[in-house]
Design a protein that fits this description.
The chain has two helices and four strands. α1 (14-28) packs parallel to α2 (77-88). β1 (2-7), α1 (14-28) and β2 form a beta-alpha-beta unit. It has helices at residues 14-28, 77-88, and strands at residues 2-7, 35-44, 54-62, 67-74. Strands 1-2-3-4 form a four-stranded mixed sheet, with helices on one face. It has 89 residues and is an alpha+beta fold.
Length: 89
C-alpha cells in the first residue's frame, strides 16, 4: 500500500509527515487487501491558507474501484491527522 503525504504549508515538518504516514498505515493495514493507495493533504484552513485551523484531507483508492474520502479541521495538526485516520478507518 502506498501512502503519499503532502504538506501545503512550510510548517508541516518531516516529523509530521512521518506521523501522518504511520497513522494512516496503522489504520488501513487491516484492510490491505482492498486498499490500493492513500493520499493525505495537510494545509491551513482559509482561502489564503493563513487560518488557525489545520485541515487534513484523506483520499483512499479502493480495489477494484472506488474511493473513500474524509476532511477534518482541528486547531492542532496532530489532532487533525488522528481524527481523519479514525474517520477513514
Amino acid at each position: 500500500m502506498r501512502i503519499d503525504v503532502i504538506g501545503e504549508d512550510r510548517t508541516i515538518t518531516a516529523d509530521v509527515r512521518a506521523y501522518a504516514e504511520y497513522r494512516l498505515f496503522a489504520m488501513l493495514s487491516r484492510y490491505a487487501e482492498i486498499v490500493r493507495s492513500a493520499r493525505v493533504v495537510l494545509r491551513r484552513a482559509g482561502r489564503d491558507r493563513t487560518g488557525k485551523q489545520m485541515v487534513c484531507s484523506v483520499t483512499v483508492a479502493l480495489e477494484p474501484s472506488g474511493y473513500a474520502r474524509t476532511l477534518v479541521s482541528k486547531p492542532v495538526v496532530i489532532r487533525a491527522i488522528d481524527a481523519a485516520a479514525e474517520r477513514i478507518g
